[in-house]
Amino acid sequence: MPKIPPISSHYAVAGCVLSALLLAASSLSAHHANSAYDREKTISVSGTVTKWQFINPHAGIWLNVTDEAGNVHEWAGEFQSIQDLYRFFQWNQNTFQPGDEVTIVGNPDRRPGRYSMWASRVIFPDGSETDVRNTPE
Amino acid sequence: MRKHGLGISALLGILLGASATHGQPASDASPDISGVWQKTFSSSDPLVAEPPLTAWGQERFDLAKPIHGPRTTSATEANAAELQCLPMGIPATYYRPRPFEIIQLPDRVMMLFEVDHFWRIIYMDGREFPEVPLHSWNGYSIGHYEGDTLVIETRQFIGWETEQNQRWLDRLGYPFSDELRLTERIRRAEDGTMENQVTIDDPIAYSEPWTGTLTFRPRDFELAEFICQELMLSELPEMRPGQE
Questions:
Q1: Domain that holds residue A57
Q2: How crowded is residue A68: how many other Cβ atoms within 10 Å of its Cβ?
Q3: Structural domains in chain B?
Q4: Beta partners for B118?
Q5: Is A72 on the interface with B (CB under 8 A)?
Q6: What CATH number does residue A118 fall under?
Q7: Based on the structure, what is the number of domains in chain A?
Q8: Which residues contact B35 (CB under 8 A, 6 or more apart)?
Q9: What is the pLDDT of residues B183-214, one digit of tens each?
Q10: Mean pLDDT estimate for chain A
Q11: In chain A, which residue's Cα lies nearest the Cα of B226?
């Protein structure tokens, strides 16, 4: 069984449904340097889970997110492999359910008009947060 | 020709037997390298800084569109065979970030890779390579111990085939041919890591043999299931060639 406890902390969720937080670039340890995502930018989106695909090579989450103009877009968040998510964070196929209100933070697709990101952090409905980059050495 | 095929029952027997001997060296004279290991290096690290490519090798290196390293290409445009769930071969499989387990038996060493549910058998019974080669994606491996080191020779790989489906020594695009003769020298280092000194002898792709070292750290993991074909089920964007 995994011995590493989840990294959780209470986190004040901003009220905005879509906030683009342009944070300082950090070197991410994700094993894929997939050029589709802009590692220099970090964004955050909040919405309602529509789908959770807990399969390899990378897990995926989809959220319905309402933008400032009131339009709803379905965002896709790509995570690392399910073995890492299970071993280090105890995630599984039930971690997210349709209807859950969550926030995902990560690197956006480089191309305009694409609603997808390489997801690195999640804020759960109870306010707890998991940073899936935090895998132990 | 020596018969070397394994039936399912024989393989099950090996695996069941292995569970009883896991953690034990094959004999008193054998170094113990058993256990679960995971790489310490990045998928963007080359085996050596500048492999001595031949013209044949350079031409294919230039055609490579990898999904790691300085020439990273979007998965929808890349030509890495791993994106078609084809076996990567050795040493490329070591570049996947998933752990693998080494099980030492008296007459063979098993490597069980989490990634793609790939297993590898290294025959330790003194046999020679088969006279009539059966080409395989991962080659045919025989081995022996030299002091604290497991020495593995692997030949009869399926080498570079097409521009659309490329297999490399790593995840950066360094090619290999059918003529690849791979030598691995694996030992447990004093700091508890495991070193694999990999020598590439491939006169088609490289002008001279060259050697790099891969290092692994022990892991307290149970190996999990990792089915590559789930890639085809993923609805995430940018996952595989040809995807919109």
A1: 18-25+36-124
A2: 9
A3: 31-233 (2.40.128.20)
A4: B113
A5: no
A6: 2.40.50.140
A7: 1
A8: B23, B101, B102, B218
A9: 999 999 999 999 999 999 999 999 999 999 99
A10: 80
A11: A56
